[in-house]
Amino acid sequence: MSTHLFDSTVAAISTARGKGGIAVIRVSGDDAIPICEAFVRPHGEKPLSALAANTAAVATILGDRNEPLDEGVVTVFRAPRSYTGEDVVEISCHGGVLLTEAVLSRALA
Asked: Tens of pLDDT along 60-69?
């Protein structure tokens, strides 16, 4: 599993590597929401930062050229009421190694 530590923010693939219907990438820490807001666009009027705590939304996940990479579900958990006690963003995308690694790469960029 790939992980990366930003000052106080961690991004990691949270599902088993390999074939699967859905993969989950979690970003946890002070910068979780701003990091994900750079490449995750919830459908509708609200940006990711405006979603209420414990809210899931259908979203477009953008690639490194801001092209649509996938359609998935993004869930926002706000501190201190998350399982890490920090802000957490979970990105649920279609499974598979290439797509999952591409979404993680966007979080790390």
From this structure: 999 999 999 9
